[in-house]
Design a protein that fits this description.
The complex is a heterodimer of chains A (416) and B (502). Chain A is an alpha/beta fold and 416 residues long. Chain A is built from eight helices and 29 strands. Chain A folds into three domains: 189 residues, 3-Layer(bba) Sandwich (FAD/NAD(P)-binding domain), CATH 3.50.50.60; 127 residues, FAD/NAD(P)-binding domain (3-Layer(bba) Sandwich), CATH 3.50.50; 63 residues. The termini of chain A are far apart. The relative contact order of chain A is 0.13. Chain B is an alpha+beta fold and 502 residues long. The radius of gyration of chain B is 23 Å and the shape is globular. Chain B contains 14 helices and 22 strands. In chain B, the strands form five sheets. In chain B, strands 1, 2, 9, 10, 11, 12, 19 and 20 form an eight-stranded mixed β-sheet that branches. In chain B, strands 13, 15, 16, 17 and 18 form a five-stranded antiparallel β-sheet that branches. Chain B has a four-stranded mixed β-sheet with strand order 6-7-5-14. The chains are: A alpha/beta (416), B alpha+beta (502). The interface between A and B is large, with 46 and 44 residues. Bound molecules: flavin-adenine dinucleotide (FAD) (2 copies). The site of one flavin-adenine dinucleotide has 40 residues of chain B, from α1, β18 and α9. Chain A: GO terms for molecular function: oxidoreductase activity. Chain A: Pfam families: Pyr_redox_2 (PF07992). Chain A: It comes from Streptomyces tagetis. Chain A: This is FAD-dependent oxidoreductase.
Chain lengths: 416, 502
């Protein structure tokens, strides 16, 4: 095989979801030069393309729109700013540290940019990754696949569904099932109460009419050919029963799409499994940045988009040769927190996007008392007025870090 | 294809082979290299949808077989035949080699005998090595290995492509492939068990009628290669010589990101129950852990179980703890056709013009082509006249779905010629629109999502359809608007002739 052709834009953005497109609009608009967005789908826009319900755009655009309308808006804005968006264009690996390998119908080529932004998003763990045994019937989906089927391809799903997971996205699955004429018969969650926004939960229970089985897990999928039932177990009593259904949707339980980051040899955070980043969204490799749900699986689209806006400043500084990161300190999430993003605080860097640190909790706390400790010293302690709830991102103001010593040891973030 | 001499005469095939697994497909291919008409009958809607699709996909040297058995001989020969056939047809193979690891003194003490056994099986390249060397080639192996035996020629292969290549080849040579033809009754012409002196069966017309779910099929000779169903079929011929026990093997397939952890097949010291739990790279660039071995009664129970998972995770924790920290991409179970007989059970019944291939439990992928050769010899001895053809078509060139050789998405020239190979549809496995299109239009086309998975790997990756499931379904529906990746008429539909002679 001959050597593929090489193109050399100023910036390569991998992933044209809310994070990548917003970064592209910002960079192209602020004179970054040739900004190339590679997205592997037919159309750019990321997950909102097939998330056909309202609730997008609040924090970044200050208005609320449906997912597809939001996706189109972001594409238009980036295009108008001068970004070069290439769809059906997949980055498949790396030819060397700064050269991406690309496959598209236009050909196979290499891209060596002066700066790269990873914005590849996150996916839901499918049934197999959750190690749920049983048969392998048709009718077992993730929310992503379900919404693709229903909204982009107008395919039928079954008549009666069990939804696994009690995250924000689980309710989105319920809405989609209803629209497709499939009754969400039961939502199964391991947590003591169904997570996600209280209002939505109420709406879920009353408007959507979905019964929720808490402290419950799925132990088996049953059915040859088409799904017939799932077996569920109550975590406290150990009691098991079968629930008849022809459709099962495994929702939430996110994992970043970190393959490219890993194959590039970029350091990952053990908590998020996304690239380890500082508040300026630099990764461990100079010239490579990251944004969006790749870093925090998962927050809402507007937060991903605002990452994209945030990263642009540092990418521009890098292009100007003016980016010299100072040594920083590590941020560490203590239980019940599973992870914090970003994970590195450097003295001369900007505050994180929106002035917030993002965390994921395994326990519910109505009035969480957040404690910041460094080298055995309590740096800050504050009781927040919003809950920390499993199944969605918990945000804390980065001003809590004001007293951190830039030359000290790791900074622990915990409760109580 | 110009295989006219191999059409059934008066609607009667010379040979009907029952079972479209690796063994049946290999037999059909072998026989249709001769001047006979052959039908390959498969109960399901695709070839290779039984045990041949769900195994550990190792091309065995046969080093650990029982010396002197038919199995030992056919596995050793099958290894060479299949290696050569893979090269001709493009079946993906990687010669990774294996290390059999001893974890306690008893196992360590067993290594010399295993080496001798390998030599008795005609395999002379095993070496006993110390723990240092084991960890040298398997740095991520769990703690506590005491030593090992190397098997440098043990290899990994694509079992799906193997089955498809053999069946496609058979079809090119003139075999009529009859899918959705489950054999439910047998009529040997003049009463079951008829025996006459001429070796051509009962005094009647010497024709056996197979009653199937899609009508009758008539043939002079019948080969039973029905895998898990071989004993039932054997009883339809009036025999009572063995019983199949489905022995389930469950497996985990780990994320491709684990592939750098292990470069060789890691074998345990075998026991009387089977080959034990291994860790192996897969030909698709993943790592697998398994299989379990559990006797069942239900021959269709290819589901996975909590106990199986727990067992594998416990084993895996010992074998390679790093592996378990990674994501599981897939889990599945296969059923070995274990029988109450210590060797392959391959016997011809000249009076009935019938041959049984039974008990091909855990080595049939490797041995398939050698089994087919052996079957051909037995059939000739039983009286079937087989004249080699001078006009045997070239074997098919199969699409490469292995990870070691370049795939279409990486091939700049191919994409330049046909941009469909530049449109990646299944991102995790990097399957392109061109490959999906080709699979739907292949001589033995993909008819179901599972059939498409086996031909292209589409949807087999870490997202299991999160991104691509809907797009893949839409694409295959476009190529086969009737029933998804639905059936196409000729060449493998139902030929008109056997309606005429019912
Ligand atoms: C069912 C569901 C409902 C939701 N509802 C809401 C809601 O109501 N409101 C809200 O604010 N948020 C919602 N979200 C969350 C929101 O969709 C995400 O936060 C947002 O899409 C994240 O943006 P992103 O840019 O980080 O990633 P993504 O949107 O996932 O985009 C990543 C992009 O990268 C591309 N890509 C990945 N790898 C490669 C590669 N190798 N080469 C080329 N391209 C690549 C992908 O094709 C994709 O287009 C919902 C999510 C789901 C799943
Ligand atoms: C867990 C496991 C691991 C294994 N690992 C390996 C390995 O690493 N290497 C190796 O070489 N081998 C391995 N094997 C063994 C190998 O998979 C089998 O020996 C081989 O696939 C058997 O092929 P077959 O054609 O005999 O059976 P099958 O593939 O089961 O084919 C039989 C076919 O007959 C059809 N059939 C049945 N009854 C009827 C009927 N009445 N009418 C019409 N059609 C019928 C079935 O539908 C089926 O398609 C393994 C097996 C298992 C289960």
């Amino acid at each position: 095989m001959t050597q593929p052709p090489l193109i050399t834009p100023d910036v390569l953005i991998i992933g044209g979801g809310p994070a990548g497109l917003t970064a592209a609009a910002e960079l192209a608009g602020r004179g970054a030069g040739h900004v190339l967005v590679a997205d592997r789908e037919q159309d750019a826009g990321g997950i909102p393309r097939h998330s056909d319900h309202t609730g997008y755009g609040l924090r970044d655009l200050r208005r609320v729109m449906t997912g597809p309308a939001y996706a189109r808006h972001l594409v238009r804005r980036a295009t108008e700013a001068g970004a070069d968006i290439r769809t059906r264009t997949m980055v498949t690996g790396w030819a060397d540290e700064h050269t991406a390998e690309v496959t598209s119908p236009e050909g196979r080529y290499h891209v060596r940019a002066r700066a790269t932004v990873l914005a590849t998003g996150a996916r839901e763990r499918p049934r197999t990754a959750r190690r749920v045994p049983g048969d392998r019937p048709h009718g077992v989906y993730t929310t992503g696949q379900l919404q693709n089927l229903v909204h982009l391809h107008h395919q039928p799903v079954g008549k009666r569904a069990v939804i696994v997971g009690g995250e924000l996205v689980s309710w989105s699955a319920a809405v989609t099932l209803r629209e497709a004429g499939c009754t969400p018969a039961l939502m199964v969650s391991q947590y003591p109460k169904a997570e996600s926004y209280g209002a939505f939960t109420l709406a879920g229970r009353t408007v959507l009419g979905v019964p929720v089985a808490t402290r419950t897990r799925v132990t088996r999928v049953i059915g040859k050919g088409r799904c017939q039932a799932v077996e569920i177990e109550h975590l406290d009593t150990g009691l098991r029963r079968r629930v008849a259904c022809d459709t099962v949707v495994f929702t939430g339980d996110w994992i970043p799409d970190h393959e490219l980051a890993r194959s590039a040899g970029i350091t990952l955070d053990e908590g998020t499994l996304g690239p380890l980043t500082d508040t300026a969204l630099r990764t461990s490799r100079p010239g490579v940045f990251a944004a969006g749900n790749l870093l925090h699986p998962v927050d809402t689209a507007d937060v991903a988009a605002l990452d994209g806006r945030h990263v642009a400043g540092r990418v521009l500084a890098h292009l100007d040769g003016a980016d010299r990161p100072a040594p920083g300190v590590r941020l560490i999430a203590d239980a019940p927190f599973r992870w914090v993003a970003p994970q590195i605080l450097r003295p001369s860097d900007p505050a994180p996007a929106r002035g917030r640190l993002l965390l994921w909790t395994d326990e519910f706390a109505r009035f969480p008392k957040v404690t910041i400790r460094q080298d055995g010293r309590t740096v800050a302690r504050r009781t927040l007025s919003w809950p920390a709830a499993p199944g969605r991102v918990f945000r804390i103001p980065s001003t809590l870090l004001a007293g951190v010593s830039p030359t000290g040891g790791p900074v622990h973030i915990g409760l109580g | 294809m110009t295989a006219t001499p191999h059409r059934p005469h008066d609607g009667v095939f010379d040979v009907a082979v029952i079972g479209g697994g690796i063994v049946g497909a290999a037999i059909a291919r072998e026989l249709s290299g001769h001047d006979v008409s052959v039908a390959l009958l498969e109960a399901r809607d695709d070839v290779g949808d039984g045990t041949s699709k769900a195994n550990t996909a190792i091309l065995h040297t046969g080093f650990d077989a029982k010396p002197g058995t038919l199995e030992s001989r056919l596995v050793a020969r099958g290894y060479h035949l299949l290696s050569a056939y893979a090269e001709e047809t493009g079946i993906p193979v990687e010669h990774t080699g294996a290390v059999l690891v001893a974890w306690n003194d008893e196992e360590l003490a067993a290594l010399p005998a295993l080496k001798e056994k390998a030599e008795a099986n005609g395999y002379a390249h095993c070496r006993i090595v110390g723990a240092d060397e084991v960890y040298g080639v398997l740095p991520h192996l769990g703690e506590g290995a005491l030593g090992g035996l190397t098997v440098p020629d043990e290899s990994i292969i694509c079992t799906w492509t193997t089955n498809l290549a053999l069946a496609t080849d058979a079809q090119r040579r003139g075999t009529t492939v009859l899918l959705r033809h489950a054999v439910t009754g047998v009529d040997t012409g003049d009463g079951v068990g008829a025996d006459t002196a001429d070796g051509y069966g009962g005094g009647g017309d010497g024709v056996t009628t197979l009653h199937t779910s899609a009508g009758d099929v008539r043939a002079r000779w019948v080969v039973n290669a029905a895998g898990l169903g071989a004993d039932h079929l054997d009883r339809l011929f009036g025999h009572d010589r063995f019983t199949v026990t489905p022995r389930r093997g469950e497996l985990f397939v780990f994320d491709k990101l684990t592939r750098p952890l292990v470069d060789k097949i890691v074998l345990p010291v075998p026991t009387s129950r089977g080959k034990g739990v291994l860790i192996s790279p897969t030909i698709y660039g993943n790592v697998m852990l398994g299989p379990t071995a559990e006797d069942l009664t239900d021959r269709t129970d290819t589901g996975t179980s909590e106990d199986g998972f727990d067992f594998l995770l416990t084993k895996g924790e010992r074998l390679m703890p790093r592996l378990l920290a990674e994501e599981v991409t897939a889990s599945y179970a296969g059923l070995r056709a274990a029988i109450d007989h210590p060797d392959y059970l391959i016997e011809a019944d000249p009076a009935q013009r019938y041959l049984l291939v039974g008990g091909i439990r855990s080595t049939g992928l490797t041995a398939g082509i050698a089994i087919a050769e052996h079957v051909r010899t037995l059939l000739e001895e039983a009286g079937l006249k087989l004249r080699p053809r001078g006009d045997v078509p070239e074997p098919p060139r199969m699409p490469n779905i292995g990870e070691a050789a370049p795939r279409p998405y990486e091939d700049a020239e191919l994409i330049a010629r046909d941009p469909a190979y530049g449109t990646v549809v299944c991102f995790c496995e990097r399957v392109t629109e061109g490959e999906i299109r080709d699979a739907c239009h292949a001589p033995l086309p993909a008819r179901t999502p599972e059939g498409l998975r086996r031909r292209t790997r589409a949807m087999n990756g870490r997202c299991q359809g999160f991104y691509c499931g809907a797009a893949v379904a839409a694409l295959s529906a476009r190529h086969h608007p009737d029933d998804g990746c639905g059936s196409r008429p000729a060449p493998c539909g139902r030929p008109a002739q056997h309606k005429d002679n019912r």
